[in-house]
């Protein structure tokens, strides 16, 4: 763990509430209402639509008076009542942002349901929920808790796809859609099937998610969600079927958690591992790589890259260490690879400077810093975590994008030479002294500054 200089030396992440909003916006028949400052909601709405939200985000504005008099709570109450039409919605998610959360606006006092529409208020202030990935867990857990109470009190709907005839494994964490299919194929020899992926895409899928034999913590930060599953009597297994060693360990863990015979576990391994080995052999990666991100799959990506031959120097994640990231941490650290949880941009930049990799994978500012040093950089969220990782599809998918990026080194050198000096010194937009104007033309900024100080260029 890194030393913390102060409260703002936190992992870099977009507004954490985005995670909750994204979960709500991707669910059918679910309305999402944000309660917070207009500038926050503008940014969240922009990002939500950039990432393909298909419906509007509700917003309840406030001012100082409505915040302190309780008027804001009344306004939220009214907005939720007006939205609660069971013809259109199963649930309304109300996301409390920083200012109303800090001011204690008591959204928990909203009714649990209105006209049969479930109301789920959650507080997701940036000062308490560290990353947007953990905010996804927060809403997923709130939904599971609600759904569990419903399932315990009477019959509930089956998912649209129907109930599986085989015992199922619920998968935790957003993943490439093909990964769930790959995992399903690997489970078949053990008489198991893939169940729901949490966060789910529809309310009725929550009941099926709870009705699993075991949950697979593919993304290890879903701790609140796992607590809800445990309350429903389900256990979770860590890690994921990535690479040969990861797949072998994961099949053994799932098989034994589900009480599958050792013969069936061996059959599953025999069916999956040779093909994974072949896929790895066909996808060699040569080069030194540093990895960082805030999605929760950083350690899994690192494992796969190592098995494909990459020299992974360090792995930084904005997420915390949990029991479900432990096998991956141990596997990487046993190879001498430094793993840092709750890493900051400062930690990630230091890793680049220390290791001078052929490729830096990380957040947008990290990829930018790498490129400033003529090191190819890739944005983890859009270019790595949105690709298949599991089973036979993972190695080829990653090797394709990683090898192409490593090959950009020469282009980075050319660009670095071309842009040399741009954004530095007087071109950074911050002038500690009046910049020297080029003689060929008048520099308006310098002229203005000179006028303001009463010094003409001839003085
Ligand atoms: S102030 Fe809080 S709610 Fe607003 S953008 Fe920042 S973290 Fe998000």
Automatic annotation (TrEMBL):
Q: In which pathway does it act?
A: Porphyrin-containing compound metabolism; bacteriochlorophyll biosynthesis
Keywords linked to the UniProt accession: Bacteriochlorophyll biosynthesis, Chlorophyll biosynthesis, Oxidoreductase, Photosynthesis
Entry keyword annotation includes Oxidoreductase: yes
One BP annotation, GO: photosynthesis
List, alphabetically, the SUPFAM superfamilies matched.
Answer: Helical backbone' metal receptor
Annotated coiled-coil positions are: none
Classify the source by domain of life.
Answer: Bacteria
Report domain Nitrogenase/oxidoreductase component positions: 15-404
Protein's recorded name = Chlorophyllide reductase subunit BchY
Write the gene name: bchY
């Amino acid at each position: 763990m890194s030393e913390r200089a102060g409260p703002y030396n936190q992992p870099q992440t977009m507004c954490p509430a985005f995670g909750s909003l994204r979960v709500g916006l991707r669910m059918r028949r679910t309305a999402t209402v944000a309660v917070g400052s207009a500038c926050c909601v503008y940014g969240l709405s922009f990002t939500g639509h950039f990432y393909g939200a298909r419906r509007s985000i509700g917003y309840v504005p406030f001012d100082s008076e409505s915040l302190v008099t309780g008027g804001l709570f009344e306004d939220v109450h009214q907005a939720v009542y007006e939205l609660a039409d069971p013809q259109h919605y199963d649930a309304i998610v109300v996301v409390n942002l920083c200012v109303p959360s800090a001011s204690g606006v008591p959204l928990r006092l909203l009714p649990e349901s209105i006209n049969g529409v479930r109301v789920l208020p959650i507080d997701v202030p940036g000062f308490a929920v560290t990353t947007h990935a953990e905010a996804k867990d927060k809403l997923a857990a709130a939904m599971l808790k609600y759904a569990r109470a419903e399932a315990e009190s009477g019959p509930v709907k089956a998912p649209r796809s129907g109930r599986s005839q085989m015992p199922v494994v619920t998968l935790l964490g957003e993943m490439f859609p093909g990964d769930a299919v790959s995992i399903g194929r690997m489970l078949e020899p053990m008489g198991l099937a893939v169940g729901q992926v949490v966060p789910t895409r529809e309310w009725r899928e929550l009941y099926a998610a709870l009705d699993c034999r075991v949950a697979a913590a593919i993304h290890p930060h879903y701790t609140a969600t796992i607590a809800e599953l445990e309350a429903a009597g389900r256990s979770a297994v860590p890690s994921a079927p990535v690479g040969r060693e990861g797949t072998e360990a994961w099949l053994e863990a799932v098989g034994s958690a589900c009480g599958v015979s050792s013969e069936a576990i061996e059959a599953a391994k025999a069916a999956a591992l040779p093909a994974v080995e072949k896929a790895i052999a066909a996808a060699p990666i040569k080069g030194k790589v540093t990895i960082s991100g805030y999605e929760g799959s950083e350690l899994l990506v690192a494992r796969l890259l190592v098995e494909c031959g990459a020299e992974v120097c360090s792995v930084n994640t904005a997420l915390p260490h949990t029991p479900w990231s432990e096998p991956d941490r141990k596997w990487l650290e046993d190879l001498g690879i430094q793993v840092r949880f709750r890493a900051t941009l400062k930690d990630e930049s230091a890793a680049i400077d220390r290791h001078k990799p052929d490729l830096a994978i990380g957040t947008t500012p990290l990829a930018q810093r790498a490129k400033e040093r003529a090191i190819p950089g890739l944005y983890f969220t859009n270019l790595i975590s949105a690709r298949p990782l599991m089973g036979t599809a993972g190695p080829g998918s990653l090797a394709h994008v990683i090898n192409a990026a490593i090959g950009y080194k020469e282009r980075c050198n050319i660009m670095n030479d071309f842009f040399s000096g741009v954004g530095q010194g007087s071109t950074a937009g911050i002038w500690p002294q009046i910049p020297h104007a080029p003689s060929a033309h008048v520099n308006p900024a310098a002229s203005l500054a000179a006028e303001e100080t009463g010094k003409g260029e001839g003085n």
